[in-house]
UniProtKB/TrEMBL annotation:
Name of protein: Nicastrin
Underlying gene: NCSTN
Membrane-topology annotation of the record: Single-pass type I membrane protein
Pfam family, one: Nicastrin
Location(s), subcellular: Membrane
PANTHER family: NICASTRIN
Gene Ontology CC terms, in alphabetical order: plasma membrane
Record-annotated membrane-spanning stretches: 630-650
Domain called Nicastrin small lobe: residue spans: 28-201
Length: 669
């Protein structure tokens, strides 16, 4: 590249920067597909552009939807206006709405859940053939706050913006250029926004998978085929556990994953973290007693991924058990205890949910598990009670086991009927939802060690779970009251999973090659194709360290059932004291059986897929009036044709215009 080319590049970049202001703190809503349809949002292939309108109330919708003279509009709204009513009105007038930008504040509204009122209603155990009166939340609406926005399709892009300087700049641009005065139309130039989030996949999963196959067969080596082929599967390692042998008591959290309306802002504090942190703490509490006095039954700790999307992880485990592809089969399961949402108490009780159909048919007997749980709360300040009315199981992995065969099981939760969680599957289900707060004068390392009230509460729940499991597995009754969860471990896990994963404890228990997954923020719990498996890896290594044993093996010898971890940095040293941990922790894939079987229109298994995209981008700029644009175009065209005519005239008369006159021969003097 020569100097002229370098100068040209710099010049072009500077012109673009003068025209556009790039927005960096944005997160899109993306497209998802299943067996029957598509949901989510997308822009056109070249991005969608509209004049910015800041929505101040629902009544203010009249301007972008009908009165405004400069459609289409890019609507900027506060999270309090991000409601189903407003979004559906804009969806129905999408020819006047180019897109939506939602400002996510630093504080939470009174309630918000973009999920449906009946999560996973078509893939649980209840159907026309099993408890038809309980199917589709006929008796209990689990998530009454759900507005269903996450399962709608929008033909325009929807982005979230953080409440920061960029958002203030956009609002100021709107005030300076776009705000109508006394109902009169604003004058050009106007402030506009352009959003890019074009999605490649369309229609449904069967269509997407068929197009993948066509692309592979026609041109298997092209980049386009590679991109299209990844439009699909929600892949994630799903199962972690401590394996002993032959007859098992199974304990499982409902899920490790979560989701929100926007692509990568799901923290799932109450929805998922409260459950699996409690389970990890219970596993640690059982470590010493199960070594000192092993119970007659073995305990399997299971952590499932992809449960938000129609129980991907649990349905795959059941499928593998039924087909002899798992370490045990369904007949080896004695009973199931699942930890649901347990951190948001509305009183002093937690609730024991069971399946009324199998209990009524006498196909299972879970009374022993109920009694073991209820008798384990002595001295802990709360009770475990059964709901007062006959109702179905809440959305839970246990339902996928019951679809296969009757198994005694209980789901432990903090709600009797409807969820206490006011932010189920939304970006507000974060640390604040669990009242996870720290004194302002504490350093990050001190916050890691500070035992919060939430940690104390979950420690008590973990203690009850550990004691009940030990009794249910046939352990020594005289040792039950010695089982206690550690509040310090619980508070460290809550800090690492909901505040900052890049802390000294998480660093010590992770493998050196995985240290880069630790960030100064919570992990991302969404399980899309492009997302990392950070929560899975964190839980894997935490479970290994909490239940395993350190060995003297070197790093080269640390293989198979062994994990090499970084360890702590000793005082007066700069090198970590790394070591090898022996633990019975395993990973299996959470790939829906529908994709293993090629049944992309399956009604029995999850068929959710995620579209791929080329890039995500947002920017604002000033746009001139249509008349000025047309005038500029017209002048440009006129100049073009004029220059062509002049060039033609000059080229045709070149021999006259540019002929050189010969000088006469030199005269002799």
């Amino acid at each position: 590249m020569n100097l002229d080319e370098i100068s040209l590049d710099v010049y072009c970049n500077s012109v673009e920067q003068k025209i556009y202001v790039e927005l960096n703190n944005t997160v899109p809503c993306v497209r998802l597909l299943n067996a029957t349809h598509q949901i989510g949002c997308q822009s056109s292939i070249s991005g969608d552009t509209g004049v910015i309108h800041v929505l101040e109330s629902e009544a203010d919708l009249e301007w972008p939807l009908s009165k405004g003279p400069n459609p289409p509009y890019m609507v900027l709204l506060e999270s309090s206006l991000f409601t189903r009513s407003i979004m559906m009105k804009m969806k129905n007038e999408s020819n006047r709405v180019a897109g939506v930008a939602v400002v996510v504040p630093n504080t939470s509204p009174p309630e918000f859940s973009p999920h449906t009122t009946c999560p996973n209603e078509n893939t649980g155990v209840y159907s026309d053939n099993y408890g038809p009166n309980l199917a589709h939340c006929n008796t209990t609406v689990w998530n009454p706050r759900g507005n269903g926005l996450s399962y709608e399709e929008f033909d325009f892009p929807v982005f979230s913006l953080k409440e920061d300087n960029e958002t203030e700049f956009i609002k100021q641009c709107y005030l300076d250029h776009n705000r109508a005065v006394n109902g009169s139309a604003p004058q050009y130039p106007l402030c506009a926004m352009q959003l890019f989030s074009h999605m490649h996949a369309v229609t449904n999963t069967p269509t997407c998978m068929r197009r993948n196959d066509i692309n592979f067969s026609i041109n298997p080596g092209t980049q386009t085929a590679t991109v299209v082929s990844r439009d699909t599967l929600l892949l994630e390692p799903c199962f972690l556990g401590t394996l002993l042998l032959p007859v098992f008591q199974v304990l499982s959290t409902r899920f490790l994953d979560s989701r929100a309306f926007f692509w990568e802002v799901s923290t799932g504090a109450e929805g998922s973290v409260s459950g699996f942190v409690t389970l990890l703490a219970a596993a640690q509490a059982l470590r010493e007693v199960t070594h000192a006095a092993p119970p007659t039954r073995n305990i399997l700790f299971a952590f499932f991924q992809g449960e938000t999307f129609d129980y991907i992880g649990s349905s795959r485990m059941v499928y593998d058990m039924e087909n002899g592809k798992f370490v045990i089969d369904l007949d080896n399961i004695h009973s199931v205890l699942e930890i649901g949402q347990v951190a948001v108490h509305s009183g002093t009780n937690l609730f024991l949910h069971s399946d009324p159909v199998s209990r009524r048919n006498n196909t299972v007997n879970d009374e022993n598990l109920v009694n073991n749980l209820q008798s384990s709360t002595a001295g802990l300040g709360f009770l475990l009670v059964e709901p007062n009315v006959s109702q179905p199981l809440p959305p839970s992995s246990l339902q996928r086991f019951l679809r296969a065969q009757p198994i005694p099981g209980i789901v432990l939760a903090d709600h009797e009927s409807a969820f206490n969680n006011r932010y189920y599957e939304s970006f507000y289900d974060n640390a604040a939802n669990l009242n996870l707060t720290y004194p302002s004068d504490l350093s990050p390392e001190e916050q890691l060690e500070f035992v919060t009230d939430t940690a104390k509460s979950l420690t008590d729940v973990a203690t009850v779970v550990a004691r009940a499991l030990y009794k249910q597995a046939g352990g020594d009754e005289s040792l039950v009251n010695t089982i206690k969860a550690d509040p310090k471990i619980v508070t460290q896990m809550l800090y690492g999973f909901l505040v900052s994963s890049n802390n000294s404890w998480f660093q010590a228990v992770m493998a050196p090659e995985l240290k880069n997954i630790l960030k100064p923020s919570p992990p991302e719990y969404y399980v899309g194709v492009a997302m990392s498996s950070t929560p899975t890896r964190l839980v894997q290594y935490l479970l290994a360290n909490l239940t395993g044993a350190a060995t003297n093996l070197t790093q080269s010898q640390c293989m198979y059932s062994y994990l090499w971890v970084q360890g702590i940095v000793p005082p007066n040293s700069t090198e970590r004291d790394s070591f090898c941990v022996r633990a019975s922790v395993r990973l299996t894939k959470a790939v829906s059986p529908a994709f293993e079987l090629g049944e992309y229109a399956s009604k029995d298994y999850s068929t959710w897929t995620e579209s791929r995209w080329k890039f995500i981008k947002a920017r604002i700029f000033l746009v001139a009036s249509r008349d000025l644009e047309m005038l500029t175009l017209g002048v440009g065209v006129a100049v073009l044709f004029t220059s062509l005519l002049v060039t033609y005239f000059i080229s045709t008369k070149a021999d006259v215009l540019f002929s050189s006159t010969r000088e006469p021969a030199s005269a002799a003097y």
